Design the sequence.
RNA sequence: GGCGCCAUAGAACAGCGGUUAGUUCGGGGGGCUCUCAAUCCCCAGACAGGAGUUCAACUCUCCUUGGCGCUACCA
C-alpha cells in the first residue's frame, strides 16, 4: 500500500490537514504501507518556503513520518507538460482563449437558466489553423480537458459508490495561462508517477475526484482507490475556522499540548472506537483499523475533550519527561530552576496543558498579592476562622525549625485547639499566603514560600480583611 | 442556482429488525481528600419530520427538512 499526504504550503499545518496526515499515518502503520510526502505548490503566488518549513517541522513534532519525500510539485513542471502535450496531441485537451469577461458572462447566463455552471466548450470547436493563428498573435490561453458526457463513478472506501454525471462537469482547466499546471492535473500525474495505491484525503475533495478520474481516463491510466474522510467542523457545525478555536497545530504546541494527545484525539475523532478506553497510541489503534469504522458524518472539534486527554497524557509522564517537556514553558518564570521543578512535579496531575505551569508558579513569584475577597466570602463567615489564622501566625512566628514536618505539626496542633474544620483551616491559610484557593499541596506551598514570606503575606491579608468584613 | 455528502443526548462513538437505547468527554449534584486535580456514587439529556415495507423499525426504502462540501487560471 502506497499512500501520500499532500499539503499545500500556504500557511502552517491546519488542524484538518493534521488529521488527514494522522489518518494516512494510521493506515500506513496498519497495512505496513509507505507514506509519501508531497508539497503541492503549483500555485506560486500562494506558496511560501516558510510555510513548507513550518509544515515539515510540525509533522515531525507530531510524529508523522514519511518513507519518501518531501517532493515538490513546483520542480516537476516538465513532467506535467509532457502529459498535457500528450492529451492535446490526442485531441483530448484543447487550448482555450476565452477571456475573463466571456467566462463571467457565461456563468451569469447559466445561473439565470438554473443550470450547472461551467465552461461551455466553445474553444474546443476552434480549428487547428485558428488556434495556431491566435497563438502566433500571442493571445493568452489555458488548456482544458474535454470531459466526455458519461457517468463517472468511484467506490469510496468510506462513502461507498459515488456517482457524478460528466455532462454537468464541464471542461476543466489543466494548464494555466502562466504555464503552470492546475491542482487536478498535477495530482493525477503525481499519484500515478508515485505509484500511489490509496488516496486518503478530506471530504472537500470529493467533488474533485470525478474531474481527476476524467483525467485518468483520458490518459488511459487506472485511478487509485479513494477514501474521503469527513471534515472537522466547529462548534456551530460550520467549517472549522479561527472563529471557533485555534486552527494551527503550532498553536496547540505553543500551549503545551502533547503530540501524543493530539494524535490520539485526532485518530479517534470520527472513528468508531471503544469508548471505555480512549487513551490509545496510534500503533494500538492501527492494530484493529478498518475504513468501515470511519464515520461518514463530519466531526465536531471538542477542545474540552482534547484537554482532558492531554491531562491524561501529562500524568503518564515520568518526572524527568515532564520536566524536559515543560522546560520551554518555564523560561519566563522568575524563579530558580530547582524551585520551578519542585512546583512542577507537585502539580503534575493538575496540569491540563504544560503552559499552566506559569499560572501555578505565579504565587511563588509575585510579592504583591491581590486578595480578591469575593472568593472567600463564604469562608470568612465560618466562626473563629480569622482567630485561627491569627493564632497560626503567632505560633509560626516563634517556630524554630521551619520544615515541612514542623509546619504540619503546628497546623495539626492548632487545629486541635480550635473547633474548625480542617478544610476551612487549610483554605484560609492557602488564601492568605497565596491569594488563591487552588495551589499545590498546602505545606509544600508554605515551605517553598518560606517562613518570613508567609508571615508577611498572612499579616497583610489580615490587615485588609477587617475593613472588607463590614460589607458582609 | 447546480452537483455531491451527511443526520442517535451539548460533543465523540455503540446499537446492524424485537434493548429499561449503552459508553466516553462535557454539564448538574454528592462522597473522599488541606484546595484543585484524580477517584467513587448519583442525576439530567438523543433516535430531525413524514410516508411506506414488516407481526415488529433508531435500524430497510422513499420524500421533506436541516447541516456541510464543491461549484476558481486555490489546493
Sequence:
Amino acid at each position: 500500500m502506497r499512500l501520500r499526504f499532500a499539503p499545500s504550503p500556504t500557511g502552517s499545518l491546519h488542524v484538518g490537514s493534521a488529521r488527514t496526515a494522522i489518518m494516512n499515518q494510521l493506515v500506513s502503520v496498519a497495512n505496513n504501507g509507505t507514506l509519501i510526502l508531497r508539497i503541492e505548490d503549483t500555485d506560486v503566488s500562494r506558496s511560501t518556503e516558510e510555510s513548507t518549513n513550518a509544515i515539515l517541522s510540525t509533522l515531525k513534532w507530531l510524529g508523522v513520518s514519511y518513507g519518501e519525500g518531501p517532493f515538490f510539485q513546483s520542480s516537476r513542471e516538465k513532467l506535467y507538460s509532457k502529459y498535457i502535450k500528450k492529451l492535446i496531441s490526442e485531441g483530448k485537451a484543447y487550448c482555450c482563449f476565452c477571456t475573463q469577461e466571456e467566462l463571467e458572462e457565461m456563468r451569469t447566463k447559466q445561473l439565470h437558466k438554473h443550470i450547472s455552471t461551467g465552461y461551455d466548450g466553445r474553444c474546443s470547436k476552434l480549428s487547428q489553423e485558428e488556434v495556431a493563428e491566435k497563438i502566433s498573435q500571442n493571445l493568452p490561453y489555458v488548456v482544458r480537458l474535454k470531459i466526455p458526457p458519461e457517468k463517472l463513478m468511484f467506490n469510496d472506501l468510506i462513502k461507498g459508490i459515488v456517482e457524478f454525471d460528466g455532462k454537468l462537469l464541464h471542461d476543466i482547466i489543466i494548464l494555466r495561462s502562466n504555464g503552470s499546471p492546475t491542482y487536478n492535473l498535477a495530482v493525477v500525474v503525481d499519484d500515478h508517477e508515485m505509484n500511489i495505491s490509496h488516496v486518503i484525503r478530506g471530504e472537500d475533495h470529493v467533488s474533485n475526484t470525478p474531474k481527476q478520474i476524467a483525467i485518468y481516463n483520458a490518459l488511459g491510466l487506472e485511478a487509485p482507490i479513494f477514501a474521503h474522510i469527513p471534515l472537522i467542523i466547529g462548534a456551530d457545525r460550520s467549517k472549522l475556522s479561527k472563529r471557533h478555536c485555534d486552527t494551527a497545530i503550532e498553536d496547540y504546541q505553543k500551549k503545551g499540548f502533547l503530540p501524543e494527545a493530539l494524535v490520539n484525539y485526532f485518530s479517534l475523532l470520527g472513528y468508531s472506537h471503544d469508548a471505555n478506553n480512549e487513551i490509545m497510541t496510534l500503533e494500538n489503534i492501527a492494530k484493529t483499523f478498518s475504513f468501515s469504522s470511519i464515520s461518514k458524518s463530519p466531526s465536531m472539534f471538542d477542545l474540552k475533550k482534547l484537554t482532558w486527554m492531554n491531562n491524561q497524557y501529562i500524568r503518564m509522564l515520568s518526572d524527568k519527561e515532564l520536566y524536559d517537556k515543560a522546560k520551554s514553558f518555564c523560561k519566563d518564570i522568575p524563579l530558580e530552576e530547582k524551585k520551578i521543578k519542585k512546583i512542577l512535579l507537585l502539580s503534575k496531575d493538575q496540569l491540563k496543558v504544560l503552559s499552566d505551569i506559569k499560572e501555578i508558579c505565579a504565587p511563588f513569584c509575585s510579592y504583591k498579592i491581590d486578595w480578591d475577597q469575593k472568593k472567600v466570602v463564604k469562608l470568612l463567615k465560618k466562626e473563629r476562622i480569622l482567630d485561627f489564622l491569627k493564632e497560626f501566625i503567632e505560633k509560626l512566628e516563634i517556630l524554630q525549625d521551619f520544615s515541612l514536618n514542623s509546619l504540619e505539626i503546628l497546623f495539626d496542633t492548632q487545629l486541635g485547639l480550635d473547633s474548625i474544620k480542617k478544610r476551612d483551616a487549610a483554605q484560609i491559610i492557602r488564601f492568605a499566603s497565596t491569594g488563591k484557593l487552588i495551589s499545590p499541596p498546602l505545606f509544600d506551598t508554605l515551605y517553598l514560600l518560606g517562613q518570613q514570606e508567609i508571615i508577611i503575606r498572612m499579616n497583610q491579608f489580615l490587615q485588609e480583611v477587617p475593613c472588607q468584613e463590614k460589607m458582609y
Summary: Chain A has four domains: 1-71+230-316, 79-175, 324-358, 366-469. Residues 324-358 of chain A form one domain. The longest strand of chain A covers residues 34-39.
